[in-house]
UniProtKB/TrEMBL annotation:
Gene this chain is encoded by: Contig693.g771
Residue segments, region Disordered: 1-20
Record carries keyword S-adenosyl-L-methionine: yes
Alphabetized GO MF terms: O-methyltransferase activity; S-adenosylmethionine-dependent methyltransferase activity
Protein name per its UniProtKB record: Sam-dependent methyltransferase
GO-annotated biological processes: methylation
Amino acid sequence: MEDLNKDKSAHKNTVSKDMVMKKYGEAPHENREEVQDFVNLRMNKVSSLKLRLRQETHEKFLRPSVMLTGVDQCEHMKFIVKLANAKKGIELGVFTGYSALSFAEALPEDGLLIAIDVSKEWTDIGMKYWKEAGVDHKIQLRLEGGIIVLDELLADENNKNTFDFAFIDADKNNYPNYYDRIIQLLRSGGFLMIDNTIWNGKIADEEQRTNDQETAHIWQIVDLAMNDERVEVHTIYLSDGLTIVKKK
Ligand SMILES: C[S@@+](CC[C@H](N)C(=O)[O-])C[C@H]1O[C@@H](n2cnc3c(N)ncnc32)[C@H](O)[C@@H]1O
């Protein structure tokens, strides 16, 4: 592991990392997959319809799809959206609609999720399940690039400072371009969830942050948030990493 104090590009702490980072007495976790299944299915309430959506997605891609957001992560985000009594959100990156369905479950009957993706083929799968779950009226699907839709929303002053939450899980190279646009759309107290901020561990590798484009762009959005006085930031090592940014 690299020296964390060497990196000048983002917020950092100068105390000894050995003292603060180690978690003592942790048991080895050889049966991690089994435990993950137990947590997902016995310690979260996930409908069989949502599991069918995952199953169909896995079958279509002929293997467990890495694009699908994790079961426990979606339940976590859904829980936060509920805790916040959120009514209006934006999702960038819908794929086959699993996370959008989770958000829609958390929204009230008159809630709205603007769900943005470029693939009709993939979102058609999601649409089928949104309808079956009876939440399709809460989801407005926009089949366009993320920047186009965000700029369109921003062009109407009435949209600024009004959204309760947003979730970014689309093209990684555009992550930094999405950041300020979303912050402008969020209300004070609203929050942005950024997916994949651990990026399979590459985020902690200086060489990857420098030379791998997607890692560099993911790091850039985290860095933007870490140095932004308008927000508070928190990252959790859940699934592939989730950074949550709350607008003050
Ligand atoms: C990781 S998947 C999203 C997974 C989804 N959140 C879920 O829970 O299953 C990323 C999605 O981003 C979409 N995407 C890629 N480039 C995009 C862009 N420029 N604008 C909007 N969506 C884009 C892809 O079509 C893909 O469906």
